[in-house]
Amino acid sequence: MVAAALALLLATSPAASLRKACDKSDTRACAELSRRYRAGDGVPRDPAKAVAAARTGCEAGEPALCVEAGRAVLRGEGVKPDAELAQELFGAACTERSQAGCLDLALMFQNGTGVPQDPNAAVPLFDKACHGGDAAACSLLGDARYGGIGTARDPKAAEASFARACDLQLYSGCTKLADLWRLAKDGRAAELYRRACASEETDACTILILDQGCAGREGCLDMADLCSDYLAGYDVLAEPRLAVDPCEKACAGGAGEACDNLADMYQEGYGVPADGKQAATFRKRACELGDRDACDIRQ
CA-to-CA distance for 57 and 19, rounded, in angstroms? Predict the structure, then answer.
């Protein structure tokens, strides 16, 4: 009796109705069913069923659900991780003009996530997503074009990509564009840094006060971070020449990690002429300021 009542309740529940609609290719029902299973909203939380519903919606023609399923499958949320299937799902979304699908597929190739690393395959996907209006894809495309990664090095094309990202209100893209202009001694750079700073891009704010220098490790942390960011290309241009000034100022002010970065730069001739003596001097300074990595290298 109780079992029969429970079966009737389940059969008439919202989840059951959504399942029936989803099975009939109602993509909105699939999306809602996936959300409910993912959140445990009105049904027991079940990531595997959430993925299944998203995949059904994907097959019914909703690219956003292809992306959702692809991300879950790639991370192994409720299912066995399957990079090949994720690639297929992102590819299906990208074919249907989903910028997110193109971007996620590009990132798989760029980072070698479950597939052989292939920057050449990533670049056209970044380009497609950028043309579709994805600001992050535009910025990543600019990075590739500036660094010549997966494509010919082309600073002018990189400038256009960063400008597009900036126009789409990705303010780290504005910072990168300003960096390019600063290298070209273009007076527009300062105003663009101010625009990015007003949108809470910390590196842009730090660039605006570089000439003031800094004092004490705590007071120099932002400049030390800027130094590292230029070396890594994190939210700024990947350009060691622009790293030199914040590295030197942060090191002089007392940030050991900045001195250690300078030592690496002189050791490798990265952004500065190779100079083993200078590298040793900055490594010693970094160690004296308490940077353990520098001390370990010196030992």
Answer: 11
